[in-house]
Amino acid sequence: MTLIPSVPAAKRVLIVGATGFIGRFIAEAGLDAGLPTYILVRSPATCPSRAKTIKVLQEKGAIVIHGVVKDQEFMEKVLKEYEIDIVISAVGGANILDQLTLVHAINAVGTVKRFLPSEFGHDVDRADPVEPGLTMYKEKRRIRRLIEESGVPYTYICCNSIASWPYFDNTHPSEVLPPLDQFQIYGDGSVKAYFVAGTDIGKFTIKTVDDIRTLNKLVHFRPSCNFLNINELASLWEKKIGRTVPRVTVTEDDLLVAARENIIPQSVVASFTHDIFIKGCQTNFSIDGPGEVEVSTLYPDESFRTVDDCFNDFAATTNGVTSPNHVDEVLSKIAPMCA
Asked: Tell me, what is one Gene Ontology molecular-function annotation carried by this entry (predicted)?
């Protein structure tokens, strides 16, 4: 009799916050990888763009579960009935602490093999932004400590910045084209950061969920091809559009004043921009601890999409835009998002 080797069943993944900017890329990557992918969404979806995202993910094979993450009894039921192996949270800043309930549910069920909380930015234990951004980081630290104290198996994804133009006063960089009228240069523009395309955040996140090398570790995204400062980003964009654009200095004091105004979300973004491009929070430490790893060393054969390539897309989108007054119209064609 010939024995046929058994093939391990694909891990069942539950994604919370799949209709958000980061969550959508993670859900699509999970589906592309052939993983049974479940998405938890509120019912009904009142935002048209989120309803559209849900429809697209369903058409790709996602299984929609209606409910809220802060209902522990409900979450325990979901984790048990759907036999969820991996839980990934990409909830937004206002809902970070809802994950406390999620961690309690995962701990109570005891069958989840990996939890990825809503990080997808900086290492919150190292970064130290001014308020109001610090409050969000304190909430994320609180989630980390509960995970670790509960013994829930985890992976923390620290993917740094989105590959786009980083406006300090905008809701999210992904919603903004590189400028056509003037560049905002933070400080002297020389502090570098790492930029990662949304598709790569999704791709590499999904790669880590069943990798023993990432169990109970921080995974840092530091693509050398996208290690750039603001001046370099500006020069790259000028090359794409074929003309120079005036540069205006946004000083450290300007950013601190914007942060102190406590206008949400602009002041939060200003505090993070200060931490990145003035204090260098993405680059002022080395990755050498036993509990952390850089993603390129894990998957050396996988490439990152370059900022240069991302800017090609932006340049194609702005084709025919003759003045800054047309920017709003162009933006509406890229990726309208709900607040």
From this structure: oxidoreductase activity
